[in-house]
Amino acid sequence: MYQVGNFFQNDNIKTIASMGPFSVLEYQKDMSVMPGDAMMAYYCNEMNVRKRQVACDLSKAAVTVQAGAMQWMAGNVNATTGIKGVGDLFGKALRGSVTGESAIKPEYQGDGLLVLEPTYKHILLVNVDEWNGSIVLDDGLFLACDSKLKHKAVARSNLSSAVAGGEGLFNLGISGSGVLCLESPCPQEELVEITLKDDVLKIDGNMAIAWSGSLNFTVERSGKSLLGSAASGEGLVNVYRGTGKVWLAPVTRGFA
Predict the structure, then answer these.
(1) For residues 128 and 174, is the Cβ–Cβ distance under 8 A?
(2) Among 150, 230, 239, 250, which residue is least crowded by beta carbons within 10 Å?
(3) Which of 132, 135, 121 is nearest to 180 (CA)?
């Protein structure tokens, strides 16, 4: 039996979203500030730069988290590597090497409480069922998910997507039924959701943070010819084709 005080009931900590086993907590003010940092802390608060962290209720579902993301846990919590044999270890190591994600993501199960490290990024909770059971993520977004969800490396539709677009050849794909937790550079309120039905979306820049696994992702010339692409001033664009949806950030990753 355990009790947690001055956390969920703290006036400075607000639960801003909940889905499945996950609750997103946001610190309204950063009170752990020394005089030399007070000015920066003030302006960060004014610009919605706040500490956020995820609490996982394991009585609702076992969860898989990014390596090193655990901060503390209370009650009946069992941590495992999630590896189910030599073949599974080899597959996860291979997937990690091509996607840039950690090869081994620990799994936590039981009926206790797991709290992840705070972050200044925005936390997005995603019901994978709403993406027809399959979603592909841009690099570095994965934070945690329901352990029932399956992970796989998703190859781009052609080699030009990696070489010409300046991106990796593989992305992390999540499939199944459950809730996914992402660390995003921009808040949910600024994401543009574009739904395609046998249609095409072309984007000048790395602004798509997630897209349906049913979409084909390539990099193509913006015009039908090299001369047309040069005349438009756009050159190469990221192309998403088929039926599904895309989450589009208002600026490119890194705010370049």
Answers:
(1) yes
(2) 250
(3) 135
* Model pLDDT for residues 1-59, shown as the tens digit of each residue: 899 999 999 999 999 999 999 999 999 998 889 999 999 989 998 998 999 999 999 99
In contact, 21 and 61? CB cutoff 8 Å:
yes
SS (H, E, C) 99-125: HCCCCCCCEEEECCEEEECCECCEEEE
Token pair of 43, please? 């302006």
Q: What superfamily does domain 13-248 belong to in CATH?
A: Mitochondrial biogenesis AIM24 (3.60.160.10)
User: In a 3-state reduction of DSSP, which class is residue 36?
Assistant: helix
Give the integer Cα–Cα distance in Å for 120 and 184.
10
Q: Please name which of 100, 57, 102, 55 lies closest in space to residue 82, comparing C-alpha atoms.
A: 102
pLDDT digits (tens, 9 = 90+) for 101-117: 566 789 999 999 999 99
Instruction: Enter the pTM of the model.
Output: 0.85
